[in-house]
Amino acid sequence: MNKVLEVRDLTKIFGPGCDECLHATGLGHGTNACPICGSIVAANAVGFDLFEGETLGIMGESGSGKSTLVKMLYFDEQPSTGSATFFDDGTTHELFSLNAARQRWIRNHKLGMVYQNAHAGLNFRISAGGNIAERLLMCDQLDYSRIRQRARILLDRTEVFADRMDESPRNFSGGMQQRVQIARALAINPPLLFLDEVTTGLDLTVQAKILDLMLEIQQQHRISMIVVTHDLGVVRLLASRTIVMKFGQVVETGLTDQILEDPQHAYTQSLVASAL
Amino acid sequence: MTTRTQATNISGYSFGFMDEFAKEEVRRRVLKAIAIPGYQVPYSSREMPMARGFGTGGLQLTLSLIGPDDTLKVIDQGSDDSVNAVNIRNFVARTCPGVTLTTHTQQATIIQTRHRIPEISLERGQIMVLQVPYPDPLVVVEASEAKRKIMHGEADYARLWVKLYEDIVSFAEVTISNRYPTRIAGHYVIDPSPIPRYDVPKLHQAKALFLFGAGREKKIYAVPPFTDAEPLSFEDIPFRVEDFRDEEGRRRNCARCGSDNSFLDEVVGEGGGKSYQCSDSDYCDCMAASEKQTHE
Fold it and tell me: Rounded to two decimals, what is the model's pTM?
C-alpha cells in the first residue's frame, strides 16, 4: 500500500511555551495546560501514517486536540514543531517546510476540508454554485460553462437540488449546507480529504444521509480521509483505523473494531463504555 | 528634471508647488512602480491645496514629473473643460512657470486624466497620469489590507473571478462598468481607476507609460510601455467593451462630429430626447474640423 501522509512529532502549543510544557501536561498530569507558563498544549508529539484509500478516525473528547491536528495539516494553524510528509504521484512534499505560496498551492490542488460549522467552509455572501466555482477557480480552471457543469454534477451527487445552485447557502438547511461543503471539497478530486465533525449538530436522519454519502465517496474514489469526531458511530462506520486522543496526546491507536471491542487504555475503555 | 537647489519662484513656492524632497520621493516610487508592473507602491502623499479625492494622487505625480519644457493636458471625463480639469490646469499654470498647456492629445508630453484615456492612441514618450480613488481591486472581496497584500504577492485572485462568476449567474454578463480588474504582465491585478471598460484594452502593449496615483490611499502603480494588460475573463466568455448599438443593432454616431468609433456620452436634451456625443472633447473637435474640411 502506498503511503499518502506521514506525520511525526507534531506539536502545537498555544501561548508563550516553556521547556516544561510537554513534560508537565498530558494524560499523566490530567491537564493540557502547562502549570508553569499557562500555555495550552493542543497537540503533543502526535505521529501517524495514512495510506492510499484509507480512512483514519481521530477520536477524543472536546479539547483533546483532534481538530487542531487536522487544522495544522490543512495549514489553518501553524505547528510549533514536527513534520508532515505528503506523498503525491511520486513527489514528496514536506508540508511545513514549504513557503506560503506552495502551501496554498497544495491546499488548493491536493487537499479538501469539511468543517463542523458550514460558516467556516463556505462563503455565505455568494451562491452555493459560486462556492464550488471558487474552488475550481483556485486551481486555474477558467472555463465558465465547464465550471457550471462541474458544480451541477457535484451538487447532484451530494443530493443538493442543482436547481438551487444559484441561491445563497444561507437559504439552505444545515444538512444541505454541509453537503454543499462536501461538494466544494470534492470539486477538484483531492487525494486527501479532512472531515472535522461533519455530522455534529445535525439530526439523526440527516446524519445518516451524510454518512451514506461519505461511504459512497470512499468506495468510488479511493480518497484518503481523516475523520475527526467524538461520535463512536461515525468512526465505526467510516474508519478502518482509529487514533484516540486525550490532552493533546495519542493514547491508543489500532484497528477501529479492535479499539471499540477491546480497548486497551483506561481512557479508551471509559470512552467506549460511556457511549453504551 | 529640476535639482533640489533650484531657486523658488516669486510666490515663494518651488517650481511645481511641492518641495524638492517630496518630488524626489514620488519619483523614486514611480521608478519602483515601473520596475514591478502593477504593484502598488506606498508613498507618503503630501497635503495638497485641494481635498483628497479630487485628484491629489494624480497631481502629485504630475508635479513631480513636470519640467518647464513639458506640455501638459488635463482631462476630466474626457473633457478639457470640466471643472476638475480646469482647476488642475490653472493650478499648474500658477505653480509651474514655463510649462505649456494644451488640449491636444498629440502635443502633450504629460496627460493627467480622470476617468478616460484619450481616443487618439498615445505615442512613445508620452506619460498618462491617472487619478485613482481606490487602488486595490481586491478591496471588494477582502477587507483586511494585510491579507490583500499576501493575496497580491501570491497572485491569489480566485475570488475576483468568483465575483465575475456570480455576475454572469445573476445577470448573464459581467456588470462591472468601470474599474475593471486587469492583470498586468501576468501577475498583479490592478484597479485601472474608473475608466470605462472601453478604455481598458488601450493599456495593453501601449507605447506610452501609464502611471496611477491614489492620493487618499497613498499608492502609486504603473503600466509601463509594451506591457501585457489583460482584463480578467473566462476562457469561454471573453471580455467585451461597451458597444453603443441602437435598437436596430447599428453603431451610434456622435451627434457633433459623426464619429462611429469613439466612446459616447448620452446627452439628454431639453425636450427629453437623447443624443450621443464623443466623451473625448479633443478627439471630437479634431473629427469635426476634418469633417468641415472635407465639406469645403
Answer: 0.89
